[in-house]
From TrEMBL:
Organism: Mycolicibacterium fallax (Mycobacterium fallax)
Protein name per Swiss-Prot or TrEMBL: Oxidoreductase
Domain Putative oxidoreductase/dehydrogenase Rossmann-like, first and last residues per copy: 5-128
DUF2520 domain boundaries: 146-286
Superkingdom as given in the UniProt entry: Bacteria
Length: 303
């Protein structure tokens, strides 16, 4: 591997396993920072098309050849596949001694890379705290995103931090023993937000359907319609207020202790779709706990 100039990694030959949403986005970001993605693995037709579109000058090779060609090896596979991949690479001794091996798993630190560390690799966990849909915006969002980094020593932290800074991100340290909690918090904020908003949109669509005779536009199931436009400014304001003011941003019937309104919501949602009511009940119960709502609200939510 080339020498480091201060704390900034020198121009590195990068290998990416595999050409999924995360791996190709990081590969493009590293190339924009003057590194070169020399090889990537891609098995499915979709991943091969993604690699050819995002990394057109990069060779698609088998996993062991990607590892052998790389000074910086990115393991961007689902969490469940990471242990098998690491042990397979260790068994073939494909990873170069002295190379930097990075995985992008949120829930894991560097311990999972131990078989490769024993072969002389420098292990890093670099997790982008960002959601990836496969759209080109994924790449742009990496610039300005925060990255949870875990390393075995200060040299590792310096290299991990420098790589993140090079692609425009903000690095922050996560203890090895805190990775699962860290990942759970991020999943709760991102994945469950999608569920809550999707449920809310379904409920609003049901409420607005049949009102077209009043001159309102047709309410359909396609994203980007009236229901989304109604909810978007409200949801954005709630998110921004929470990030700026914390618990003080909470408003609505649960926070006010309006048990009758909550009961009405549950009845209307149950009639529209019992699953929507179940999601509302679970979220409202946690809201009541945070807001120290009066007992009447808890009675409505738990009966």
């Amino acid at each position: 591997m080339e020498q480091l100039d201060g704390l900034r990694p020198a121009r590195l030959k990068v290998g990416v396993i595999s050409a999924g949403r995360v791996g190709t986005a990081i590969g493009v970001a590293l190339e924009r920072a003057d590194h070169v993605v020399v090889a990537t693995s891609a098995i499915s037709p979709a991943s091969r098309r993604r690699a050819q579109r995002r990394l057109p000058d990069t060779e698609i090779r088998p996993v062991d050849e990607v590892a052998a060609a790389a000074e910086l090896l990115i393991l961007a596979v689902p969490d469940a596949e990471l242990p098998g991949l690491v042990h397979g690479l260790a068994a073939t001794a494909a990873v170069r001694p002295g190379s930097i091996v990075v995985h992008t798993s949120g829930a894991n630190g560097t311990a999972i890379l131990a078989p490769l560390t024993e072969l002389g690799a420098l292990p890093l966990a670099i997790h982008p705290a960002m959601t990836f849909t496969g759209a080109d915006e994924d790449i742009d969002r990496l610039s300005g995103a925060c990255f949870g980094i875990t390393a075995a020593d200060e040299i590792g932290y310096a290299i991990a931090g420098s790589l993140v800074l090079e692609i425009g991100g903000e690095p922050f340290r996560v203890r090895e023993d805190a990775r699962t909690l860290y990942h759970a918090a991020l999943a709760h904020s991102s994945n469950h937000l999608v569920t809550v908003l999707a449920d809310a949109i379904d409920g609003l669509r049901a409420a607005l359907t049949g009102q077209e005779l009043l001159g309102q536009e047709l309410v359909g199931d396609a994203p980007g319609g009236l229901a989304e436009r109604v909810i978007a400014p409200l949801a954005r304001a709630a998110l921004e207020n929470t990030l700026a003011r914390g618990q003080a941003a909470l408003t609505g019937p649960v926070a006010r202790g309006d048990a009758a309104a909550v009961a009405g919501h549950l009845a209307a949602l149950t009639e529209a779709d019992p699953n929507l009511a179940a999601g509302y009940r679970a979220a409202a119960l946690r809201t009541a706990q945070r807001a120290h709502a009066p007992q009447e609200v808890f009675e409505v939510l738990t009966r």
